[in-house]
Every structure is written in C-alpha cells, then in structure tokens.
Amino acid sequence: MVLPWGVFLLTGAAVHARAGGHAHRAPPSRLELTDLGTTQHQVAGGPGDNRQLVWLNETGHETARCLDGSPYAFYIWPGNSSDWSIFINGGGWCLTEGLCEARAGTALGSSKGYNISGAWGPPPGNINGGPPAYTCQGLDSNCTRVFLPYCDGSCFTSSRPSPWPVNGSNASLSFRGMDNLDSTLDVLASQFGLGQAKRVVVQGGSAGGLSTYLHVDHIADRVRAANAGAAGGASPGASAATPSGEIGDVGSVRVVGRPVAGFFIDEENFNPGTPSYAQDIQYGVTMFNSTPVLSSACMAAHPTQLWKCWMAPYAAPFVRESIFAVQSRFDEFQLKCLLGLPCFAHQSFEPPFLPSTCNDTERAAIVTFGAALLSQLQPLLKAKPDTGTWLVSCIQHDVVCPLGGVQEEDAFASWLAGGELGREIGYRWFDTCGHNGTTPCDLGDHCAPPHF
Fold first, then answer.
1. DSSP label of 331
2. Which helix (H) or strand (E) holds 171?
3. pLDDT tens across 286-309, in order?
C-alpha cells in the first residue's frame, strides 16, 4: 500500500490512504471566536470531532498576518495534553514580490477562506485532519493535534514589522511568518496546555517539511519554556536556557522533527542560464528578512552566505533535536521545478501519469540528481547519529511508500520509542530497488515514470 502524505505542493490539498474515521470523543465545548470580524462558533459540528479554529487576532496577536494582511489562524484537536502532533502545512514558497502578490489571493497567502469545515484548511484526509490512529502515530492515540496553515510564502521565516511594497503596484505584502508561528505557540501555551507536553512530534510535507527542519529547535525551546512556566519557572514565552546558553531538557520533554519531502537540495538548473533554486533563495531571504530567524550555528558556519541556512542541506546538520527524515531520492517536484527537466514539464504529481518522454541526457540527469541528494544528506547523517531516515527510490513528491513490506509509520514509531524494528540498521531505511537505490524504480501507483 502506498500512503500519500501531507500536502501536495501546488494545491495545498492533502490525502491519505488509511481507512477509518475519527475516534469517538465527548461533544466539544463551544469556543466563540471571530472570523474576520464576524463572531461565530468556530468548532466542528460532526460527532466525535472536537476541531477548533482559533483566530489569533481575537487572542491579542494582531501582528500575526498572512501575505494579504488577513489575520492568521490555526486548527487544533485537543486531546492528551502530554502528547502533541504539530503539523506544518506545505505549498511551495514565493521568492519575489510578484510571486508573493499572486499568492496573496489564494489559500497559500490569505486566511479569508478559512473556516471550520476545512475549506482552505485541513481536509479530512490531512495528516492532522485524518484519523487519530494515523495522525498520532508513535504517540498516544488521543494526542493533541495542531494544524498550522501556511499563508506567508516564506516557510514561516519572514519577519518584517511593516508592510512590504510591491514595485509597480499599489499593493503591499505582510511578511509575518515567524510571528504567525510564535503567536500560535503563545496561544497553545496560554490556552491549550502546551506546558504539559512531554512528547511533541513536529512534522510537515513539502515546504512544511522544510519548515520542520528550520523550526523544530525553536518549537522545542518554546515547549520547554512553557513547561518551565507551568512548573512555576520561566514565563510561557521565554526560553528555558541553562547557564551555558544551551536549552535544557526541562521536565524531560522530548521534541522530534519528522520532515517529509522537505530536503530541497542545492543543484544547478538543467537549463543553462536559468537561475538555480539557491540563486532565487538569496533574493527571497533578503526580501523576507529571514536571517533573524535562521539557525545561528548554521550562519556562523556560513558567515558570508547566510541565505544557505534557509536550505535544508546546510541547515539540517545544525538542528539540535532528533530528526526522522522522510524523502524520495528522486523527488519529483525538484526534478520538475528546481532542476527544470523538460520531460517533467507536463507530468502530474499524482496518478494517472503521462508516459515518460525523458531522453538519455535527461535520464542521466535524474541519476545524477539522486546521487547529489544522497551526498547532500550525508552531513546531517554524520552530524547527528540519532537521525532516522526513510529514503525511497521512487519518483514522487510528498508521498510515503513502504520499503520491503515495512510501513513508514511503523518504522517511525519504532525509532521514536527505541524499539526493535529498524534498530539493527540504526533506524536508517534506504531503498535498494533500482540498482541498489541509484536509479528510480516502480514501487506502486504513486511512482512517476521513467522507471529504470
């Protein structure tokens, strides 16, 4: 069985392939919140679904905004306050003012369409909108689940206090991604018991996977600070630091990252003269004012190229918390949109797929890309021996495939618990199909051609 995971990049829609509905729970208490100035009861109405939509402008966090200036909001399914699953939505990014202006009129740049039914929010099949048995994997089956919509275009790294003008237009953009994240954590700590958390899984797909690499340490700091505040120590918004400046293990809180399809590599475009992904990022990081948010340890290692710390290959080795990286060696989005292979220009991200038109040169570029991704993953694996991996050799994006009859959620749960499954390989699962993983192979319906 192939499990689509998380959020497909272009639509923001998410699906999964597990059967079953929500676990039965008591009827939710009704929480009165405001949707763009209209007071509504923002709780789910279906039996067994205690989903709540929380608007941050109604909690005193007026500066948490989407690209178009609309207020930020998040979804939460309260459950066991000791176990938390925090899912960060994906959906690409916008690295120029023009792209961000276009994005501002969509669910990836505005909250104007968010509502409790899931429109412009998490549909029933999303990782945190799906059955708890799937979304809380590795945790208590009734864990507290949080879904963070993505409407800033910067992987939650933008930090400009004032609206940013768009040249040649009367429009302006709100770059408040980091404030969206921090304000959400403030409310989770003050209203939903984040300070009681003992195990937290931070996860996301595609751009949400990149956000996981970039923010899992900060989220861990905030969770531990909330724990210290709940215990009568630091306030919920403060960092719980040891005298050396390192974040301590306050109350034995464990926070881990589970990035899916978020390892976007530094690779030249296939087409000579076309700017690379890394070149585009250099402008975007400046426009967003992202550097105050990025890893200080990473930036110390790249003092003249701070923008690199917005990229997973450079940022991931400096992540402090434990990581279970889920990735395709032949990520279809990267082959199509970042590498720019012409034979993927019209290919779908999900079945039915078109027959492959890749010529020998393009097929060779696919193999070279796979080798480059594995090479750029090595610094993370060497720097963090506790890193778990699930690396498949299927051309896909944001889809989780089984390996050798083992399901990824079982491998992750074992890694999280220090279980037997995968222990003998250090919880590092590498696909050996396709010439020992070096060429793309067909693992099922969600693997795009060509298959070598």
1. B
2. none
3. 999 999 999 999 999 999 999 999
Q: What is the pLDDT of residue 43?
A: 56
Amino acid 212 reads T
The residue with tokens 């220009």 is: 345
Pairing outcome for strands 164-165 and 172-173: antiparallel
Structure-block tokens of residue 436: 């020992």
Is the pTM higher than 0.90? The answer reads no
DSSP string, 20-71: --PPP-PPPPP-EEEETTEEEE-B--STT---EEEEGGGTT-TT-B-TTSPB
Contact 202, 143 (CB under 8 A): no
The contacts of residue 402 (CB under 8 Å, 6+ apart) are 1, 2, 3, 408, 443
In the predicted structure, residue 22 carries a pLDDT above the cut 50: no
Query: Which residue type occupies 313?
Result: P
User: Which residue has tokens 């038109």?
Assistant: 357
The segment with the largest mean pLDDT, out of 25-34, 53-62, 285-294, is: 285-294
Contacts of 139 (CB under 8 A, 6+ apart): 80, 83, 84, 85, 199, 201, 416
Quote helix, strand, coil % in the chain, to nearest 5.
30, 15, 50
Residues 6+ apart with CB under 8 A from 5: 16, 127, 205, 260, 261, 326, 398, 399, 400
Torsion of CA 130, 132, 135, 138, to 10 degrees: -160
Burial of 360 (0-12, 13-18, 19+ CB in 10 A): exposed
Question: Which DSSP symbol is given to 172?
Answer: E
Give the pLDDT of residue 209.
Answer: 97
User: What confidence score (pLDDT) does residue 27 get?
Assistant: 24
Length, in residues, of the chain: 452
